[in-house]
Amino acid sequence: MKKTFFLLVNFLLSHFAIAQNNDNQKHLLTSKVNTIEITSFSLTDPYLSPLPYKGLGGNYEYENRKFLNTNNDNLSSQSRGNFTGGIGLNPAQSAMLIYMGCNFGWGLYYHFRPIKNLQFLAGGLCELDFRFKYLERNVNNPANIDLATNLNLAGIARYDFRILKRNIRTQMTIESPILGCMFVPRSGASYYEMFELWNLDETIHLSSMYNKRGIKSKFMIDVPFNKCTWRIGAGYNTLKYKANDLIFKRNEISILTGFTFDIATFSGRKNVPPNNFKSTNN
Question: Global pTM?
Answer without folding.
Answer: 0.83
